[in-house]
Write a structure and sequence with these properties.
The chain has about 475 residues and is α/β, with parallel strands linked by helices. The protein has helices at about 20-30, 50-60, 75-85, 105-115, 145, 160-165, 175-190, 215-225, 230-255, 285-290, 320-330, 345-355, 370-375, 395-405, 420-425, 435-440, 440-445, 450-470, and strands at about 10-15, 35-45, 65-70, 90-95, 100, 120-125, 135, 140-145, 160, 190-205, 260-265, 280-285, 300-305, 335-340, 360-365, 385-390, 415, 475-480. It has 18 helices and 18 strands.
Length: about 475
Amino acid sequence: MENTKRELISVVIPFYNEANYFDSCINSVLSQTYSKIEILIINDGSDKIYVEKLNKIQSKHPDKIKIFNQENQGVSAARNLGIKNSNGEYIAFLDSDDLWLPHKLEHQINLIKKYKIDFIHGSYSIINEHNSFIGKFISKTLNYNQLIKSCDIGTSTVMVKSDLIKKHLFKKISTKEDYVCWLSIIKDTKTLVGDYKEVSIYRDRKSSLSSGIILKFMNAFKVYNRYEKKNIISSVLFTLNLSIFWILKTYKISFVNPEDVNFRYITRIDNLKFKESFILSALNMASLSSINLFYLNHSKFIFWIDGYCAKFIVNFFNKLPGRKVINDLKLNENIKKIYLCGKESEAQLNYLKQKFNSDINFIKIPFFKTLTEITRFKKIDIDHDSLVIMNIATPKQEILAIKILEENPNKKIFIMCLGGGMSMVSGEEKIVPESIENMNLEWIWRLRTNTWFRLNRLFVTGYGFFLKLFLKYFNKTKFNKID
């Protein structure tokens, strides 16, 4: 039972026309293990449609969420407005496209109390707009001389004493406003404590304001010249030094810091256990080239061996085509509902209905031109103890599967990403001749139809796979046989 004497934490979230990622953002706050919070969303002059969306979210959680509206003034003014209207003893910041891990607030407030500190920041993973894993940043405790060389604090990982941040509000600058703030605070506190434990997920967006290199360079100069009162030559030198540290930091994020993750695979479909929710997917060139999309959700995945490229990755190679996966599948007695999710197919529906002697619930999925469109797609409600069969292409089906599991928490849902396997087993597409399959040349056989589309896909997935192989990316993604 939670201690009722726990301190109130104010969560400040600047918001401006965030269409794609805000639902995940706010859900990550509402799902915190530490519940004594107030959430201050600062609407920085968003369009009417987004104001209505915020009001709808607030109406569902009136005891937790407060909305403050201002004309568009930028992220600094938005955060400052949230700080000034906060009631918490501590304040935590979160950008509207970032995420917190469930333990973030509880873990940090415990450390603050244990070590009697007023400021803490943590480690974080980095993903792109498609939820593809980029790398991991490991935080450390900083003094002024370290911080002045490199801005190594993720704003969405910070928790700070309210009285302290109110003395050091954010300055109005288009980027690096957080850097100026931390440099100001550290002159009071002498050190800014960093914790090794990962607490948030930062989204690196190409379209974000802070992504322009020239703008970053100019604002870095302003940090040193205007706010740290250094002369022009020193400011240029510090800016160049900051750039060098950024390059080194980027290398560490992508190639040094990420921890090994353990994916699982099975060699026989009848060994599949229906105990916890899972996403079953083919281990082939397409999935391996996109494995960074699954990195943060590795525990949800189970693979079967489907492509020759898996020979480079797994210790036990036993090829199992997708059509045999569904053909050999035996329905678990606990499964109460079956869904076909993807493109409409009467042949596939009839096949599944006959195979399982059960009604099949169909969920039509549009053609996604980009992976980002999947994040915008409406919520798909799936019943508890359900089997969901996907018939769209990798990695879109796997990304949609992740979304379904995230949006249906506390339910047992078993998702099978079968792609073209469903077309073959239902008779829509001709089955690859066994002689060609035995030579692992089925990809050539499939070029008979949709040739240019398949060639392009083959080039993209082949490039992604062999680049990862060359860069030894798979050294950090272990594949363990579980049957």
